[in-house]
UniProtKB/TrEMBL annotation, chain A:
The lineage of its organism: Eukaryota, Sar, Stramenopiles, Ochrophyta, Bacillariophyta. Pfam families: RNA_pol_A_bac, RNA_pol_L. It comes from the Eukaryota. This is DNA-directed RNA polymerase RpoA/D/Rpb3-type domain-containing protein. PROSITE patterns: RNA_POL_D_30KD. InterPro entries: DNA-dir_RNA_pol_30-40kDasu_CS, DNA-dir_RNA_pol_insert, DNA-dir_RNA_pol_RpoA/D/Rpb3, RBP11-like, RNAP_Rpo3/Rpb3/RPAC1, RNApol_insert_sf, Rpo3/RPB3_RNA_Pol_subunit. Residues 18-317 form the DNA-directed RNA polymerase RpoA/D/Rpb3-type domain. Keywords: DNA-directed RNA polymerase, Transcription. GO terms for cellular component: DNA-directed RNA polymerase complex. The keyword 4Fe-4S does not apply. Belongs to the archaeal Rpo3/eukaryotic RPB3 RNA polymerase subunit family.
UniProtKB/TrEMBL annotation, chain B:
Belongs to the archaeal Rpo11/eukaryotic RPB11/RPC19 RNA polymerase subunit family. It comes from Cyclotella atomus. Keywords: DNA-directed RNA polymerase, Nucleus, Transcription. Residues 32-104 form the DNA-directed RNA polymerase RBP11-like dimerisation domain. It is found in: Nucleus. The lineage of its organism: Eukaryota, Sar, Stramenopiles, Ochrophyta, Bacillariophyta. Transmembrane segments: none annotated. One of its GO terms (cellular component) is RNA polymerase II, core complex. The keyword Nucleus applies. The keyword Glycoprotein does not apply. Its main location: nucleus. This is DNA-directed RNA polymerase RBP11-like dimerisation domain-containing protein. InterPro entries: RBP11, RBP11-like, RBP11-like_dimer, RNA_pol_Rpb11_13-16kDa_CS, Rpo11-like.
Length: 323, 124
């Protein structure tokens, strides 16, 4: 007998790096599975191997390799302007049949910065300054793959930033390396994590007992409004009734303050509550913020695809077990 | 020096099956599935879905140790007519359909949001 549910999605906000949505008519197990997959199992690209030709900078090889690893790498499918899901374009390196690496499972970045050579191109008065090597100095061998500096051109124009700093060079110093990015998931290393933030909060169900509230004076209602540190209540200016504020879901932290305040106002302890705020068990407000490696909406789509793949795999394995 | 590979958390060992089953020796209609290389993500999802099935009397899972990438999922059914594996299949299928439904929901919702909030900023 099928026990299937039909969850609903409402989008509250979409930006390239951020998405906020409501997942409803399902339970915490689904919300939590999605959250965990977004954090740990959505594949992205990250620098995983670095070959040094020359490093005379002040930082040692390992230190620079670690910094390179943490730079978000964006994959943009052909004709798309979004940082997308890279799983169709690449193979996980463990699964690839090639001997060492190939374009199917890796992307190569070249970096070659020589302070003295660069200094000759600088104006006279700037030649005493050190030179910062940034993610912009990484030259990709794949047109679709690049380090994520900025999410859009507008942001790039407004910013004085030159990309993600890697190391500063002084006179006589030279950094030359080849960095190899591979696809992976953040169960292996956090550098493959596409999200900076992936959380959900419970939708607050605010029930206001208007009948009980009619016993209260305006001052008492105002006291209730002020008792809540999250300010989820307000007084309707025309009717003087207590109402929940529109964006209560962003603020509610389910504190006990309202309970305490209204218990003091009750004539008898067993009287009905004036206001009840409970966590909904089937409605969740998700916030997902990207590191820049993928667009936030793509992370959501990708997490669903990963979930689907995992379920299909388990289904096939259970079938095998039955035979 | 003897640290296990980080990928051991999600890639099956050479001699490992994804799922193993052991029928319970003391309880009828019950058995334990060992899901290799799984964690709370899938097991909690499966457990909650199994508990919604009226043919399931008991469903619970255990993660024996944070460094052991295995899950023990125990299922007991109400009658001998239904094997624990049957209920597990059904739960996976329901979840799979739910995910399909979610994928269409998300696609539609994103499209709808973009239609209503077309600011020309999205580069479409």
């Amino acid at each position: 007998m099928p026990q299937q549910r039909f969850p609903k999605i409402e989008i509250l906000q979409i930006a390239p790096h951020y998405i906020q949505f409501i997942l409803s008519e399902t339970d915490t197990s689904m919300a939590n599975a999605l959250r965990r997959i977004m954090i740990a199992e959505v594949p992205t690209l990250a620098i995983d191997l670095v070959e040094y030709a020359e490093n005379s900078s002040v930082l040692n090889d390992e230190y620079i390799a670690h910094r390179l690893g943490l730079i978000p790498i964006r994959f943009m499918a052909e004709g798309s302007l979004k940082g997308g899901d890279c799983h169709t374009a690449f193979l996980p390196h463990q699964e690839c049949v090639c001997y060492d690496r190939c374009p199917r499972c890796s992307v190569e970045f070249e970096l070659d910065v020589n302070f003295d050579k660069y200094n000759q191109t600088r104006p006279e008065q700037e030649r005493d300054l050190s030179l910062t090597v940034t993610s912009r100095n990484l030259i990709s061998n794949n047109m679709l793959v690049s380090p994520a500096h900025f999410l859009n051109e507008e942001e790039q124009d407004e910013s004085h930033d030159e990309g993600i700093s890697i190391v500063k060079l002084g006179p006589g110093q030279h950094l030359k390396l080849k960095a190899i990015a591979r696809m992976g998931i953040s169960k292996e290393h956090a550098k493959w994590c596409p999200v900076a933030v992936a959380t959900y909060r419970f939708w607050p169900e605010i029930t206001i007992n208007q009948e009980a509230c009619s016993m209260l004076t305006l001052e008492q209602k105002q006291e209730l409004v002020e008792a809540c540190p999250d300010r989820i209540l307000e007084l309707d200016e025309i009717t003087g009734n207590l109402v929940a504020v529109e964006n209560a879901y962003e603020m509610a932290t389910f504190t006990e303050d309202l309970k305490v305040a209204q218990n003091a106002m009750k004539k008898r302890p067993e009287d009905d509550d004036f206001v009840k705020v409970v966590q909904s068990q089937d409605r969740f407000v998700f916030s997902v913020e990207s590191t820049g490696a993928m667009d936030a909406e793509e992370i959501l789509m990708s997490s669903l695809r990963v979930l689907k793949d995992k379920l299909n795999y388990l289904a096939a394995e259970v079938e095998k077990l039955k035979d | 020096m003897n640290a296990p590979e980080r990928s051991a958390a999600f890639i099956l060992d050479d001699d490992e099956e994804k799922i193993e089953y052991a029928a319970d020796t003391k309880v009828s209609n019950a058995g334990t599935f060992t899901l290799n290389k799984e964690d709370h993500t899938m097991s909690n999802l499966l457990r909650m879905q199994l508990l919604r099935d009226p043919q399931v009397k008991f469903a619970g899972y255990m993660h024996p140790h944070p460094l052991v990438h295995k899950i023990h999922l125990k299922i007991q059914t109400t009658t001998s007519q239904v094997a624990p594996a049957e209920t597990l299949s059904a739960a996976i299928e329901d979840l799979s359909n739910e995910t399909d439904h979610l994928i269409t929901q998300v696609t539609d919702a994103i499209e709808k949001w973009k239609r209503e909030n077309d600011t020309g900023m999205m580069g479409m």
